[in-house]
Design goal:
alpha+beta, 2 domains, single chain, Phosphatidylethanolamine-binding Protein
């Protein structure tokens, strides 16, 4: 009985070590954060940042970028659009030392790609009906990207493939009155 108890304790300890190691690694990837002083995660996006307001991008704050990052990329899209995923904003080559993206601004040196309105700028939420979710996805990359202004989300995601060090996400919701 005593041997069984020792064996069981060893099995539990052995099983716990890899699980803890995985949790630590998971925390490293989850450390990078994207927040906005304008709305909370999964909260309502103020009309100011939509087609019903000034259509200005909301202010964003960036925290805990990995030290190895050479650039950041931001994709804002709406998976609830009637035509499928709708791209609102693409920005890449953001300096990894940037700690914020100001309201209605693009960081110096960053490049904007083509959104689904065929514009190289932010296009705010403008759902035809119902409440839609808007995903602000920030990626820390181990490289800078040599992409032109005509780049689409598909092109950007291909270029980022294999270069993502960390990712953060902020979700906002908007419903027109």
């Amino acid at each position: 009985m005593r041997c069984l108890g020792i064996w069981l304790a060893m099995c539990i300890m052995a099983a716990a070590v890899p699980a803890e190691a995985g949790r630590k690694e998971g925390r490293k990837m989850a450390d990078m954060k994207l927040i906005s002083p304008a709305f909370v995660d999964s909260g309502a996006i103020p009309a100011r940042y939509t087609c019903d307001g000034q259509d200005a991008n909301p202010p964003l704050r960036i925290e805990n970028v990995p030290g190895a990052a050479r650039s950041l990329a931001l994709i804002v899209d709406d998976p609830d659009a009637p035509v499928g995923m709708w791209v609102h904003w693409l920005v890449w080559n953001i300096d990894p030392k940037s700690r914020e993206i100001g309201e209605n601004s693009v960081p110096d040196g960053a490049v904007q790609g083509k959104n689904d309105w065929r514009r190289n700028s932010y296009g705010g939420p403008c759902p035809p009906s119902g409440a839609h979710r808007y995903f602000f996805k920030l990626y820390a990359l181990d490289t800078t990207l040599n992409l032109g202004a005509g780049t689409t989300k598909i092109d950007l995601e291909k270029a980022m493939s294999g270069h993502v060090l960390a990712q953060a996400q902020l979700i906002g919701v908007y419903k027109r009155r």
